[in-house]
Amino acid sequence: MTASDNVKRIALDKLIDYIMKDPKGRTDTIMDMLEPLLPASLFPEQRKAFRSAFEQKNNWYQLIMKILDMNEEVMPDLIKTFLVEANFLAWPKQEEARNRHECNIPWAILLDPTSACNLRCTGCWAAEYGHKLNLSFDDIDSIIEQGKELGVHVYIYTGGEPLVRKKDLIALCEKHPDCAFLCFTNATLIDEKFCQDMIRVKNFVPAISAEGSKETTDARRGEGTYDKIAQAMALLKKHRLPYGISACYTSQNADAVASEEYFDWMIDQGALFCWIFTYMPVGTEAVVDLMPSVEQRRHLYDFVREMRQKKPLFTLDFQNDGEFVGGCIAGGRRYMHINAAGDVEPCVFVHYSNANIHEVSLLEALKSPIFMSYYREQPFNDNLLRPCPMLENPDALEKMVKDTGARSTDLQHQESAHDLCDKCRPFAREWAVEAEKIWNDSSEKLYSKRMSSTQGMAESDMEKFERIQRPGRTKRDMTR
């Protein structure tokens, strides 16, 4: 950490302390105080959105106030860790590393502490993995240390059920107070003691899997699961601890998830965010019929955008929000995944790899053939509503796996990229038609931005396009 960074940290931390003493009385001036501390090029769109929220006192303002009113023992430190360490200071370091190493460097690293899970959810590949595989404490600690060298300060646990290893996860929070840890969890192992651990470490945030109603949740996750989730949420709300919801959007729960009733329920339970993932037919046992239809996906696209205008809930729709982040964010561009066997995968849904973290360094894994193929090919489609090389552009994933010699890392049954992509092709063809309608609709508010090749791109993305002379995306192409 440079002396300049340390000065910035001290100033930003003091600003956060100042705001936390009187959030409602001091938020009107926060952006004016923040601007001199940050370069103009750092998150300009996000800063504009924050300023607008403070001025309009809208639903986003309500959410910010709700966050600032969470547990006073936790939130000042968590906000400092997430905003200052993991974003304001980390992003410039990541951008520098992307240009220096000429490969993708992630904003967040997803990893599976264990393959073990106490549930067996329909359509979940992890349900087939068994309870034998684990990344040791030292394995995870090494990944975090290597990640921090590259500027990565956000770590997200997947599984399996990560809280099977909650003792180790809390110990890692203690060892790395400059990192923010998020955990996808079924919540059945969250108890009073764990809430106290969260209060003590101040940098752990659960994302609870809950998909719509009691009926739809129990149908996929098992009888009685919804009630256990409700108990965990009640505990977190009682302690005013930050948490969110993770929803897998399927053909069976589409009406329940994309409903105002569901959003109001999440807000009432105390959730701050909701991450919505479209069901992916990953694994030989995948239930293809669970894939949402084109009509259901279009409904989700419209519905989430409507809710963002009125509900105090930060919602990410991972398939339909590609236009805000320059398309696919996997392959280390913004995130990567390491499974419980140590296989370094480009995406939590793409189980193919050339590297294992037990054999190579994190940086070497990011430079492995399939990761470099992602680096060269992203974005996979100029229509950023078709971001994924598997779901919307299945020919792209099949070709990358073949060209790079990546092996299947499925921990139960090997699945060829051809077989996986074949399951996606019918949807990809149908969605292409709908996505083009949306993308080229000149009445849409985002139309002008969509016509720009810089939409959702970071400075390092644009420098990459110049370096590799990506057709249609160089400065020369843009001035024609």
Automatic annotation (TrEMBL):
| GO MF annotation list | catalytic activity; iron-sulfur cluster binding; metal ion binding
Domain of life, per the record? Bacteria
**Domain named Radical SAM core: residues:** 103-311
A Pfam family:
Radical_SAM
Keyword Iron assigned to the entry: answer is yes
What are the boundaries of the region Disordered?
A: 450-480
Q: Where is the composition biased (Basic and acidic residues)?
A: 461-480
Q: Which keywords, in A-to-Z order, does the entry hold?
A: Iron, Iron-sulfur, Metal-binding, S-adenosyl-L-methionine
Keyword Ribosomal protein set for record: no
Which InterPro entries does this chain map to?
Answer: 4Fe4S-binding_SPASM_dom (IPR023885), Aldolase_TIM (IPR013785), rSAM (IPR007197), rSAM_sf (IPR058240)
Write down what this protein is called: Radical SAM core domain-containing protein
